[in-house]
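ARCHIVE CARD
SHELF: 3
SLOT: left
DATA:
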Amino acid sequence: MSNGSSLGLGPGYRLTVEDNPREADVEILPHGLEAFNERQWPGHQQWRPLGVFVRDGPEVVAGLVGETYCGWLFVKYLWVADSLRGRGVGRALIAQAEARARERGCHSAWLDTFSFQAPGFYQKLGYEEFGRLDHPPDHQRHFLRKRLTAAE
């Protein structure tokens, strides 16, 4: 740990590295960033969470969680229980998320997936790769995007 004075901040400040930060502390960051963004880009489309779920009674057996922000849908998680794979559930989750994103004024979507997960699945749905990172020993992380509306 370093104190803030080594950063030129003066007494009372300290720099900490935390493996399990408090949720309240984490939430300060997007709110502060959003306030800064609003000053730079007044009236921009606000951040909104999005969830699409398949439930068996109260139990979630498949789902998609992401967010919409500034015209983009970001898919953070997509999961389908093994017993439901190959039945169109993933495709339906993506379709519903994309539809809601369009309702929210989004023009595009993006996501990332590992080579052992589902890059081919997303490509079949019209997603195109725009970046890739190697992940040793022999995997890659794929970044994909898709246009949701006609180009202006």
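SLOT: right
DATA:
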Amino acid sequence: MLSAHECAIITKLMSYRRGCIVLAKRCEVCGKGPQVGNAVSHSHILNKRRWLPNLQSVRANVNGSVKRIRVCTRCLKGGKVKRAI
């Protein structure tokens, strides 16, 4: 049984979208995730920004069964994912 605090943390980590649970913005094959850095203006004022990976939701064969996974386009183009027909 989870405490109320643990449930609140889990709820913040997961968001519901299109009827399925979407977790972190991370490739399930290579683990690529968001990068952080600074946006630099002309006057050299620094603001924090993020670069997000280009994730695509694909149906793939995982251990002999078909699953929907989130994969970056680099893994898709590199042939690291066996897509389901």
